[in-house]
Amino acid sequence: MVGTIGHAGHGKTTLASALTTVLARKYGGAARSVDQITAAPAEEVDGIPIRASHVEYATPARGYTHVDCASHIDCAKNMIMGTRRLDAAILVVSAAEGPMPETREQILLARQAGVGHILVFLSKCDLVDDPELLDLVEMEIRDLLSQYDFPGDDTPIVRGSALKALEGADAVWEGSVIELARHLDHYIPDPERPVDKPFLMPVESVASPAGGDAVVVTGASEYGTLNTGDEVEIVGGEERVGATCTGIEKSGQVSDSVRSGESCRAALRGVRPEQVGRGLALARPGSFAAHTRFEAEVYFPSQEEGGRSTLVPNGYSALFHIYTAEVTGSVELPEGAEGSQTGCHIGVKAALRRPVAMGDGTRFTIRENGRAVGFGVLRIRP
After folding, report:
1. Helical ranges in the chain per DSSP H
2. Are the CB atoms for 112 and 375 separated by under 8 Å?
3. Domains parsed from the chain with CATH numbers
4. C-alpha to C-alpha distance for 83 and 81, rounded to whole angstroms
């Protein structure tokens, strides 16, 4: 899964449309116009609307699902709260303006949200006549990527014009989009899917079809494999509840199994609708526990990076977003520390108001007043 990130007005949605259109012309598939992409309805996550459109395109090497967000705020919310983690991101930067404050914020969000790879599309190059100016913008982008531990010197940067590629009047600009797709094929490795671990799927939504005896849950598998007929356990509620998977649907088609990294709808028998909900998780029986206390390493962004403007106090309380769960929790700083500076990593102990299914290495986000103020990784289970 790939997503476009970048400053507002730099051409993220135009590039998403150009990828579907140009690749459809060359390899087949469905083209999507800018209007079609922007018409996608907002998806509510924990009551917060996220305007994100999903489009698909393919090269001879592999297929891609592409997430395009309507604004900088939507991009941020999608990386923080989106239920499907991006494998890679395309950073879109206008050649006429260069990197902007939102560019920096979204590179930071991508790093802390676990996006492993970034490519760059230097857009609107048709508006810049000076090659030296393009070189300077490219150098600035590489420096910015390196600041956040992405390999800036080695990152592919494609100079192009998505709008001109969409119009199809100039083979050079169409070629820039095809070049970007080739970099996606060769620079982004096939995602590693931990199918050998016990099955875990955070629940996104629940439905109870009329007249049916099964509850249907949707989600994206984090680990392992689920087969039709398998016994599962619902973790994270007041009590563990057992159920049987009686059916699986992927991409609108009936399937016998779902593997790590895939999304599905799973029918469960033996459980009531009120016993399962968003924020809980399906797991192989006995394999995962729900915790209210854990230790983690947290990065608190500086004010320049969109974080807090003041120290993080000991006992700081905020919303923790862990998989699809959102729960109030507090942070205990190391012994003797009354507050923590922002812009640095620090080891903390956290306490949640209710249990959440998680394991070693689980990533989470701390939110305050609708913005991300901390990014953490669970390191030690108590």
Report:
1. 12-27, 34-38, 72-81, 101-112, 131-147, 162-167, 171-187
2. yes
3. 2-187 (3.40.50.300), 200-283 (2.40.30.10), 290-380 (2.40.30.10)
4. 6
How many other CB atoms sit within 10 Å of the CB of residue 47? 6
What does pTM read for this prediction? Answer: 0.72
Query: How far is 153 from 45, CA to CA, in rounded Å?
Result: 37
The sign of the torsion formed by the CA atoms of 153, 157, 159, 161 equals negative
Distance in angstroms (rounded) separating the CA atoms of residues 207 and 268: 11
Angstrom distance (rounded) from CA 324 to CA 276: 13
Torsion of CA 37, 43, 49, 54, to 10 degrees: -30
Neighbours of 103 (CB within 10 A): 23
Instruction: Point out the least confidently predicted range of 132-136, 150-154, 205-209, 304-308.
Output: 304-308
Residue 81's pLDDT is what? Answer: 45
Structure tokens at 255: 């399937």
pLDDT digits (tens, 9 = 90+) for 279-300: 999 999 998 889 999 999 998 8
